[in-house]
Write a structure and sequence with these properties.
- The protein has a single domain, classed as Gcn5-related N-acetyltransferase (GNAT) (Aminopeptidase, 3-Layer(aba) Sandwich).
- It is 22% helix and 36% strand.
- The protein contains four helices and twelve strands.
- Strands 2-3-4-7-8-1-9-10-12 form a nine-stranded mixed beta sheet, sandwiched between helices. Strands 5-6-11 form a three-stranded antiparallel beta sheet, with no helix packed on it.
- A hairpin with a 5-residue loop joins strand 5 and strand 6.
- Helix 1 packs antiparallel against helix 2.
- It is globular.
- The relative contact order is 0.22.
Length: 203
């Protein structure tokens, strides 16, 4: 009912570390080339229109220092996800903040022909191992509370849900609120707009 007059969402904050992954086979790319990939190489995939990102997105991600970890089937970019160490836009109105000792995972995509092969999970686990080797504690991310299948999937994978952020936008008004446990992970959402109100964590 709220969403008939405003946009209301609940973000479930979550983390995963190497020791949390329940299936060790997910670290095996099984015939795929798994690696970080740069903007120049990604540009050709942005132009083909099949991979859900644009040249403009690549430039913005590069400006933040974000990195893409991908799985390749020979020359085909089969699956990817993006990782950031800086506050990251959720959309045109909200920005996510988080503890920078974690890498924030966002924007993942798998080509339709490769879905059902657990490539997202494999790519995430490989990236988790790479970031852990670089000194990060693990990965931090979120799932919207109404994405029930995604919530079940990430919990099965080994993610630990630690708290919630409530996000409301009605007309030009934005309001966000983070629950207490989010404090431990520096996890909160800001709206940079002048008429926004946000609470970094509850009392």
């Amino acid at each position: 009912m709220i969403n008939n007059i405003a946009r209301f969402q609940i973000l479930k904050g979550m983390t995963v570390r190497i020791q949390d992954v329940k299936d060790p086979s997910l670290f095996d790319a099984q015939g795929f080339e798994a690696r970080f990939v740069g903007e120049d190489e990604l540009a050709k995939f942005a132009r083909d229109g099949n991979h859900d990102f644009s040249i403009e997105f690549l430039r913005e991600a590069r400006a933040r220092g974000d990195r893409c970890y991908a799985l390749f089937d020979r020359e085909v970019l089969a699956s990817y996800s993006w990782y950031s160490s800086l506050p990251t836009p959720i959309d045109g109105h909200f920005v996510l903040h988080f503890d920078r000792s974690y890498a924030h995972m966002y924007k993942d995509y798998t080509l339709p022909a490769y879905r059902g092969k657990r490539l997202h999970a494999v790519g995430m686990c490989r990236a988790l191992r790479a970031f852990t080797a670089e000194g990060k504690k693990g990965l931090i991310s979120y799932v919207f509370s109404n994405k029930l299948a995604s919530l079940r999937s990430v919990v099965h994978l080994g993610y630990r849900i630690f708290g919630e952020v409530y996000v409301l936008r009605a007309g030009s008004l934005s309001l966000t609120y983070a629950t207490t446990r989010c404090r431990d992970y520096g996890f909160w959402v800001e709206s940079p707009e002048s008429d926004a109100v946000w609470v970094r964590q509850s009392a």
